[in-house]
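Take the subject:
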Amino acid sequence: MVDAPDPAATLARLGVTVLERGWLSSNNVVFGGDLPEARGEPAIVDTGYVAHAAQTLALVQRTLGRRRLARIVNTHLHSDHCGGNAALQAAHGCPVAVPAASFEAVRGWDAGRLTFRSTDQRCDPFPAHEALHPGDEIELGGRAWQVLATPGHDPEAVVFFEPKARVLIAGDALWRDRLAIIFPELVGEQGFGAAREALATIEALEPRLVIPGHGAPFTDAAAAIAGARARLDFFEAEPRRHFGYATRALAMFHMLEHQRRERAAFEAWMLAAPILAHARRLAYPDAGEARAAVHAAVERLLADGALVAEGDELVVAG
């Protein structure tokens, strides 16, 4: 990879403000805020989870000042990336651009096709006005950003790349120290290979700066790609490891929204949530083994300090 830039200086030159959010919401990438280099019409890439919609509105308004959003753009349509779309669209009256593969599902608001029902997560309906095809260019901050397909985590996901500054808005295709759930694998479809192809696509771009969907922007893309490949190797070698990882991640998302749940009810939810139930049947056809795996996942979350037991209840730590 090429020499690393100063992230803050690069973002300022692009007129980009990254609103780094907690794990319930994705980061928001805002163009056209109160920056000297801001050009073009204000836009936002990814909008967080619906439970944080009011906070998203306030953060975006603070970033834009008196300006109004002209466009909402999504890397993919998981609930933590598009949950603020409806509120922002209502407040600013701006169009929404989504990956082309998801366009008709949004237009018809097919909640099952869009995964909200299968993950038991919420998203307020919103309109879609523009389909983003791989190979397109999209104007953000007065610059042309390339649209590239990055299936794997989500088979319909795209990323955005600015080739002059070599900056990548990666969504969940690449994180710095972790690997996003490979959702197709949870329903018995091939996803690990597609995730490898997405990493190869990103590697070929030689990004100098990566803006991930979660966590701070980073410059060591090569190390992040190597780490992601190692984690894919680990999961492919024993798919039950991926099931355990996905179970813990989706369970924590649920707990971050609800904050407190009775343990028996929580474990019942983990067995019954549609996507986890499907994955469980693939990984643990025996019902007793499945219950033991769910129990072990909760014990792992307790041991890691993510959850705390208070009598019969589980509470999000901190």
About this structure: The chain has a mean pLDDT of 95. Residues 118 and 274 are 5 Å apart (CA to CA).
